Amino acid sequence: QLQASGGGLVQAGGSLRLSCTASGSISGIMAWYRQAPGKQREWVAHIFSSGSADVRYSVKGRFTISRDNAKNTVYLQMNSQKPEDTAVYYCYVPDHWGQGTLVTVSS
Asked: Are 31 and 43 in contact (CB under 8 A)?
């Protein structure tokens, strides 16, 4: 089970940090996806237990993914947010999705 939190309303240029905690130990990949209204779900970032990570091009330099393996938690730090970042954000580990947390960026 994955429990995500940290979404909310933020003005353009602002920051939010999402957290997602797994109920058990996760040794593999952890990721964030998002789904904007009327659009398909898209990959945002992923990170391996080694710390190796990648983010999609449109958020490079603004979003950072990290994880705390001891806490089974993955984070998504979102800075310099834009209205187009508005979406429901989902955390993901293989075969499991979190419940989603809504991020709204106002212009």
From this structure: yes
Output the DSSP codes for 47-94.
E-TTS-EEE-GGGTTTEEEEEEGGGTEEEEEE-S--GGG-EEEEEEET
Helix (H, G, I), strand (E, B) or coil at 103: strand
SS (H, E, C) 84-96: HHCEEEEEEECCE
- C-alpha closest to that of 72 among 36, 16, 30: 30
- Taking the C-alpha atoms of residue 54 and residue 71, their distance in angstroms, rounded to an integer, is 21
CA distance 32 to 34: 7
Please say whether the beta carbons of 7 and 103 come within 8 A: yes
Query: Which pLDDT score, from 0 to 100, does residue 53 have?
Result: 98
pLDDT digits over 39-50, tens only? 999 999 999 999
Is the pLDDT confidence value at 25 over 90?
A: no
